[in-house]
Every structure is written in structure tokens, then in C-alpha cells.
Amino acid sequence: MSEAALNVEIASSWLQGFADRVAEEKDWLTELDAAIGDADHGINMNRGMSAVATELSDRPADLATLFKRTGMKLVSSVGGASGPLYGTFFLRLAAASGDATTLDGPGLATALRAGCDGIKARGKAELGEKTMLDALLPAMDALDEAVASGQSPAEAMKAAAEAARTGREATIPMLATKGRASYLGERSIGHLDPGAASSTLLLETLAAALGSSDGS
Fold it and tell me: How far apart are CA 77 and CA 17, in angstroms?
């Protein structure tokens, strides 16, 4: 089995896959947000990723251009907090990719971590505050561990996606202390965080894109 590195083709498949999953789960994401937010997360993310998907046929030569274009499109088309946060993620991913046309496992882990650090800085949030970081940060730790143990990028991303799912579910009993949900105080307890849900889709679709390319 070949080790599938992330290249522009696979990254484009990832973004299309994410757009498709967001469209499929739009109502669920909005329902989650209705409980503790503004009831628009699914609608906003679907609008943003649909806009991203319309440009995927115009494939750039390098990853940074693709990710920068994605980030800027999300910032300009997604309302609420999600646009700046997801936009920052992809803009940091672009910066970390440099002029690379492919990222191996360690390079991918470094770039994704940079994206998550951008979300932390933009949202001024930490682990345990019932945000998308509660899915993303455990996933990054799992990714680092899997890459360090010699797993392929596809295998490592599968481990990261599984950790994201676990982190997503762990938001249910949490008290929200950041974002719109924090206004609810203890009423935020018992609800799954919509940002953790959508960011899990983000990593699941990356794992799927890498897995499809290496036949796993």
C-alpha cells in the first residue's frame, strides 16, 4: 500500500467531500446550534462550503493557493463566528504549507496544528470550553502520535478523526464558557457543541480523501 501524501488533487477531494457532508448534515448542525446558539451553523457552513466547492474545478498548482482561496471564501461568505474561525484555520494551513505541492505525514500534522493554533488565537479558547477545539485538539494529539509511530497519512488521519468524534461527544456534559453558548450558563450542559460537530466532519472527510487515494 502506498503512503498517500496530501497533494492538490487529494486536498480538492477533501474540500469537496467536506462540502458534501456539510450539505448532508446541514439540518443536524442547525438543530444543534438551535439548542445553544443562533440556529444558523448548518445554514452558514453550507453556504460557505458551497461557495468553496464552486471554485474547485480551477485547480491551483500548490496547496497554499488552494487553502488561502478556501479561507478567504469562508471569511467572506460564512456568517457568525464560524466564518472567521474556519477561515483562519485554512489561512494558517496555507501559510504552513509554504510552496509545497505535497505534504507528507509530519508536514500534514504540522500544517493542521498551525490551523488549530489559529482557531485558538482567533477564538481565545482552550480545551474544555465546549468549542470546536474540543474535537480538534485531541485529534491533533492523536495525529501526532500516529505519525510518530510510523503510520501512513491515511491511517494517522483515521486515528485523528476517531479522536475528534470522542472529543465531540465529550462536549455534551461541558459547561460552555466561550461563544454564544456561554450566555446560557448551566443550560448549555447536556448539548453537543455544533462547532465540534462540524470540525469532526472536517477531519473525517480528510481521512476519507486520504484513504481513497491509497486504497484503504
Answer: 19
